[in-house]
Amino acid sequence: MIISCLNQKGGVGKTTVSVNLAACLSRTGARVLLIDADPQGSALDWAAAREGEPLFSVVGFPRPSIHKEIVQLGQGYDHIVIDGPPRVSDLARSAIMAADVILIPVQPSPYDIWAADEVVKLISEAKVYKENLKSVFVVNRKITNTAIGRDVGEALAAYLLPVLAATVAQRVVFAEAAAQGKSIFEIDAEGSAAREIETVMAELMEFVL
Ligand SMILES: Nc1ncnc2c1ncn2[C@@H]1O[C@H](COP(=O)(O)OP(=O)(O)O)[C@@H](O)[C@H]1O
Ligand SMILES: [Mg+2]
Fold first, then answer.
1. Sheet strands (E) in 37-162
2. d(CA 188, CA 121)
3. Closest among 173, 138, 121, 161 to 13, alpha carbons compared
4. Coil, strand, or helix at residue 189?
5. Phi and psi of 2, rounded to 5°?
6. Among all ligands shown, which has an atom nearest to the Cα of 139?
7. Where would a tag sit more exposed on the chain, N or C end, judged by fewer CB atoms within 10 A?
8. In the chain, where are the structural domains located?
9. What does the pLDDT look like over 52-110, one tens digit per residue?
10. Could you report the per-residue pLDDT of 117-128, keeping only the tens digit for each?
């Protein structure tokens, strides 16, 4: 499966979600490639901060030809996660065309959800060429033990794209893990953050089937 994690807005959790989903997939024994399509190279920074064995391969490919090179790049891998670039660009378009499924992380505020309209537009353009392209929102940085507000639900519903029931909460462990080039599974495999990422992965797999 090829998952592109996209949203032109910075700071919504594309890199955080990408890295931890890749880690989650690799825990099942799958061979996983993480493609860093962000010219800023945050996923590469993550990998560089790491001491010890890598969990999965990470390559930088911030070029608008990902969709053309993906077969070559992904040779020998079971799953590919693309950590998308900020801003709407040829890069984002290419990451959409390369994917089986687009995962759009959004923060649970209507402003953030409205800001996703550009990536949603790119996805509908791509569907002209790629009928089977799937895309879904995932709410990241949800405040623990709070309900997603009605305003947030309404803002999401306006897009006609599905939203995963699974959410990822605001948890310091995500930032702590990132600082060490680790996944949250290495910090606390039994913790709530790990459970959330596993639940997102499971729901995403089911969604793609
Ligand atoms: N669920 C979360 N809980 C706590 N911090 C988070 C969470 N998701 C992302 N962050 C933090 O927010 C910042 C931006 O996240 P990042 O994944 O780099 O976003 P993007 O790749 O979309 O720019 C980072 O400092 C990251 O550690
Ligand atoms: Mg990023």
1. 57-60, 79-83, 101-106, 134-142
2. 38
3. 138
4. coil
5. -115, 115
6. 1
7. C
8. 2-208
9. 899 999 999 999 999 999 999 999 999 999 999 998 789 999 999 999 999 999 999 99
10. 999 999 999 999
CB 178 less than 6 A from any atom of ligand 1: yes
- Extended beta strands in 17-144, E state: 32-36, 57-60, 79-83, 101-106, 134-142
Long-range CB contacts for residues 75-78, cutoff 8 Å, separation at least 24: 76/31, 77/31, 77/32, 77/33, 78/25, 78/30, 78/31, 78/32
Distance 207 CA to ligand 2 centre (A): 24
pTM of the full structure: 0.97
Ligand 1 pocket member 159 (CB < 6 A): no
Residue 75: HSE in the Cβ half-sphere, 13 Å Cα cutoff: 3
15 ligand 1 Cβ < 6 A: yes
- Report which protein residue has its CA nearest ligand 1's atom 9: 13
Can you tell me the distance from the alpha carbon of 192 to that of 22, in angstroms, rounded to the nearest whole number? 17
| Residue 18 tokens, joined | 């990408």
* Token duo for residue 65: 């030809």
Assigned CATH class of 2-208 = alpha beta
Could you report the per-residue pLDDT of 137-159, keeping only the tens digit for each?
999 999 987 888 888 888 999 99
Pocket flag, ligand 1, residue 19 (CB < 6 Å): no
**106 residue type, one letter:** V
